[in-house]
Structure formats: C-alpha cells, structure tokens
Amino acid sequence: MNIPSEIRAGDTVKWKDNSTTEVFGGELKEFKSDEWTLKYYLRFNKGNEAHTSTGSVSGTGWEFTISASETTGFDSGTWYWQAVATKASEALTLGYGSLVVEDSLVYTSGPAAYDGRTQAKQDLEAIQLAIRTLVKGGAVQEYKIGNRNLKRYDLADLIQLEARYKAEVKREEQAELMANGLGNPRNMFVRFN
After folding, report:
1. Shortest CA distance to 87 belongs to which of 39, 35, 41?
2. CB-CB contact of 66 with 59 (8 Å)
3. Is residue 177 helix, strand or coil?
4. Among 34, 40, 89, 186, which is least packed, fewest CB within 10 Å?
C-alpha cells in the first residue's frame, strides 16, 4: 500500500497501488483493477471525521486522488486507514495503518498566530515559566500545564515535572531525526584500527 505516511491539510494527495497477489484462507488471490474495486477508508482519531477514496483504474492497479478541497477539512493529527478490495460479495482487507495530517500554513488575509510546537514542548515551557516565577520570589497560585489546572506546586515538584517533560521532548526530537532520515542519535559508532 502506497498511501503517504504524512500529508498536509489543503494539499492534493495522489498515490498509486499496483496489482498484487495475496494469500487469504490458504488460497492465493490475485487483485487487479479490472476485477476488484479498491477503497481506502480514512478515520480521524477524534470525533467522527472520515473520508473514503475509491481507486480508479491505472494499468492493472489503482490510482487515488484526494482533492485539496477535501483535505482542507482534515484536522491535524493521526488518521487511520484501511484498504479494502471488493468483488461481488467478497470484501478483503489488503492493508491498514496510520498517517499524520499536518496543519496548513496557507492563509488568504491576515494570518493568525500559529504554534507548531508539540504539546510536550508547550507544557515544558509553561513549567519553566512557573519555576522562574517561583525562583524570582513571585507567587504562583494557579496556572495551566497542558490540559490540567494546577494550584500551588512547590519548587521540587516543578523541577521533577520539568525533568519528565525534558525527557519527553528529547524523545520527540530523536524520533523526528530518525523520521527525517538523519539517523538514531543514540547510536554510538566505534572504529578499531
């Protein structure tokens, strides 16, 4: 299955899937576009957002297009997909997985503020602000970190929370490096001469 692993809301998305041969119930089945219809069902991990894309014939395989006007309505986050081939009364899943929809940065007039940081990075900044306020002698009675409203943390608790969020941000950054093909920063290479 060649559906992209990441798309941006507002972009036209295209991909092709080739015909394939799969084993189902011990039987070898050949899936070609002249006999089978292939559909991708996409669902968002929140709410009831969904999208169905039906492949058009492309040689013996299928070509899929999701228009820019359709993806404009996609909320950013993790979407899940299932590719189902149908012929007469048969319906067989050929693949499933997830993809990430990123926010569109396109605007027509007067762009609004955009915060592309992850929730962990936003929470870490809020914790560090609370620590600075306490260290400077300010009174932090109530503040919000993530989706929690907190009342009067002491400095030791905030430092412990900061360490946890720093580790989370570090994991996110390492995962991003690996996803961008820049290698695993935890790997250590040794040369012996």
Report:
1. 35
2. no
3. helix
4. 89
Question: C-alpha angle with apex 41: 10 to 180, nearest 5 degrees?
Answer: 55
Q: What is the pLDDT of residue 189?
A: 72
The pLDDT tens digits of the residues spanning 113-160 come to: 777 788 888 888 988 888 888 888 766 566 666 777 666 677 888 889
Whose tokens are 């692993």? That residue is 5
Residue 58 sits at φ, ψ, to 5 deg, of -140, 90
How far is C-alpha 18 from the chain's CA centre?
25
pTM over 0.70: no
| pLDDT for position 183 | 73
In sequence order, what are the residues at sequence separation of 6 or more whose Cβ sits closer than 8 angstroms to the Cβ of residue 111? none
Convert the pLDDT of each residue in 66-87 to its tens digit. 999 999 999 988 999 999 999 9
- How far apart, in Å, are the Cα atoms of 126 and each of 79, 121, 168, 174? 28, 9, 14, 22
The residues, any chain, with a CB within 8 Å of residue 4's CB and separated by 6 or more, are 13, 15, 99
